[in-house]
Task: inverse folding
């Protein structure tokens, strides 16, 4: 057994509280080195009552296997001591404690979880688990008036400077479109009064930008969205301001004598509008970085967050470059805002590892660009195969608690990237594969406005084209795919909050099972140009139904060899599936017989 691969830290996220009476424990071991793991635990004051829990295999990446179990107690978890028994496939046995690894059963040096406080419990809004997002760039989604002075004709190719006239009323008028897609939450790019068409250079955090509308317009949007059971997140741009912001303007006027001089990172006096005089976002001189560690700045930010919650009843915040803001801002924001409304969502932007933000005391979710990068490399670029794709996704899932994985904002594109269609070089078959993976994988998928009708575009500013409202220009087949996948998400609880098991990863073929107590679905994709026939292991030896075509597959007994990670998963059956180039298939067990017509469903008759 390779001992160097074994790890458990005794701290988050290797152990965390699911409730005050339940602890979730995970253990990492070297890949394919272990046949069984057990957790042994006892209370500090009852050393003689040692309980044993078999640990469940969950994930396997390129180097490691991950096991998990939970300790369920009748009282609040406190003073729980524990250690691990690990049996290697070479016949060896090791015990892991807080002080090391031993061949003999330990008598001291145990891990210990001391006490579950209320704020130790990992709580994310239940509504956000598996929710379907829709991101809107307000200036380009829809307007409610004709051409006005200063606006270019709708559909003009975007630049970093031009304006098309999108506004809040335009969004409100098209909520029915989002409802039919099955959208459950809208993420709006900034609507604060600000310079530039992107509105990330804030002038006034308490005012809606006049180009977007009025307070009345926004309240109407919130009210109507809520009537469709659609929640609304605002973009909180609290890492930096614009140069027209009152505090920065005071510095320009009063220089060293300004009472706001410590609100920013001033590097040179006299201050002029130049990235050489103060820290900025990148080298964007019109976006000076706030000193968010300053208690006065932190209080100001928290006051703004509370203002929009209290006055407009928004449902949460998407927090711009959250990993660049002082962490204490988010610690205090969570404490204060969750006290107002525990179902409020805090969604942080990060482009890599988000564990520092997802530590239980800050964000509920992050924008998961790790998922995007892996998926587009597998599908669009074909630069990695299914094995590498599987390993990257499973490493990602193993990194976070299950509750957080279910809330992860699964992005394929955004206002900061080229569109998925562009990355796929307008190959609709590839795009359909990527969309199917995104919509049915564990987490909360996000549609960037216009993706559902086939819009394309290179990176910023080209990805910010005007929404096409001429239906004759819509890709109806792509839209129908979104409708069908939205119906599946709506009907099958396993897609939203069930577990995920990767069962196929070979060549260009990838598959996974989503399952819970209500049933399962099997998702298969062929991300290659050749027809393939693949043996697919399944959880039960029974009939499986292809949801789109109603084709039936009879599961044979599993041969104990087929399938991804067949050495640790206990499949019961297997089916043979033939797939064409860039084809996807979604199969349901016999408990879903009543859903034979899923291929004909749209959101309007769901």
Result:
């Amino acid at each position: 057994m390779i001992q160097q691969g074994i790890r458990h830290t005794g701290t988050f996220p290797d152990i965390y509280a699911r409730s005050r009476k339940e602890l979730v424990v995970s253990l990492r071991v070297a890949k394919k080195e272990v046949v069984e793991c057990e957790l042994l635990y006892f209370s500090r004051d009852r050393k003689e009552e040692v309980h044993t829990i078999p640990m469940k295999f969950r994930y396997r990446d390129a180097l490691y296997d991950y096991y998990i179990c939970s300790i369920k107690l009748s009282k609040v978890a406190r003073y729980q001591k524990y250690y691990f028994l690990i049996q290697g496939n070479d016949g060896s046995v090791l015990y892991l404690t807080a002080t090391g690894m031993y061949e003999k059963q330990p008598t001291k040096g145990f891990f210990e979880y001391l006490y579950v406080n209320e704020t130790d419990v990992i709580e994310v809004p239940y509504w956000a688990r598996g929710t379907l997002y829709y991101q809107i760039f307000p200036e380009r989604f829809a307007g409610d008036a004709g051409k006005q002075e200063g606006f270019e004709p709708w559909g003009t190719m975007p630049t970093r400077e031009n304006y098309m006239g999108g506004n809040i009323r335009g969004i409100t008028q098209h909520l029915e479109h989002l409802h039919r897609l099955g959208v459950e939450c809208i993420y709006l790019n900034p609507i604060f009064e600000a310079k530039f068409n992107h509105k990330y250079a804030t002038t006034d955090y308490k005012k809606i930008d006049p180009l977007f509308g009025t307070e009345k317009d926004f309240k109407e949007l919130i009210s109507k969205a809520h009537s469709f059971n659609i929640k609304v997140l605002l973009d909180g741009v609290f890492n930096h301001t614009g140069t027209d912001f009152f505090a920065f303007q005071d510095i320009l006027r009063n220089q060293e004598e300004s009472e706001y001089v410590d609100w920013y990172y001033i590097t040179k006096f006299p201050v002029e509008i130049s990235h050489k005089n103060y820290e900025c976002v990148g080298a964007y001189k019109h976006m000076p970085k706030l000193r968010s560690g300053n208690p006065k700045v932190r209080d100001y930010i928290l006051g703004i967050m509370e203002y929009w919650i209290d006055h407009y009843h928004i449902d949460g915040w998407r927090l711009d470059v959250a990993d660049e803001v002082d962490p204490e801002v988010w610690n205090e924001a969570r404490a204060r805002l969750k006290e107002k409304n525990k179902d409020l969502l805090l969604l942080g932007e990060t482009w890599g590892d988000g564990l520092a933000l997802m530590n239980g005391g800050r964000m509920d979710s992050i924008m998961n660009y790790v998922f995007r990068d892996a998926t587009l490399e597998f599908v669009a670029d074909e630069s990695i195969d299914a094995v590498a794709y599987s390993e990257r996704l499973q490493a990602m899932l193993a990194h976070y608690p299950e509750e957080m994985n279910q809330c992860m904002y699964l992005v394929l594109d955004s206002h900061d990237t080229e569109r998925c269609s562009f990355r796929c070089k307008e190959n609709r078959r590839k795009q359909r594969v990527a969309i199917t993976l995104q919509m049915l994988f564990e987490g909360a998928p996000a549609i960037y406005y216009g993706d559902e009708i086939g819009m394309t575009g290179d990176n910023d500013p080209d990805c910010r084209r005007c929404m096409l409202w001429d239906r004759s220009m819509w890709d109806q087949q792509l839209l129908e795919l979104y409708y069908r996948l939205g119906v599946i998400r709506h009907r099958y609880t396993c897609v939203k909050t069930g577990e995920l098991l990767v069962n196929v990863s070979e060549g260009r073929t990838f598959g996974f099972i989503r399952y819970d107590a209500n049933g399962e679905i099997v998702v298969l994709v062929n991300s290659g140009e050749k027809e393939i026939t693949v043996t697919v292991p399944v959880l039960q030896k029974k009939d499986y139904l292809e949801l789109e075509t109603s084709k039936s597959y009879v599961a044979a007994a599993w041969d104990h060899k087929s399938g991804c990670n067949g050495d640790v998963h206990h499949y019961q059956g297997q089916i043979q599936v033939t797939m064409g180039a860039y084809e996807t298939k979604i199969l349901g067990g016999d408990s879903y017989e009543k859903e034979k017509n899923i291929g004909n469903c749209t959101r309007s008759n769901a």
Summary: The two ends are 52 Å apart (CA to CA).
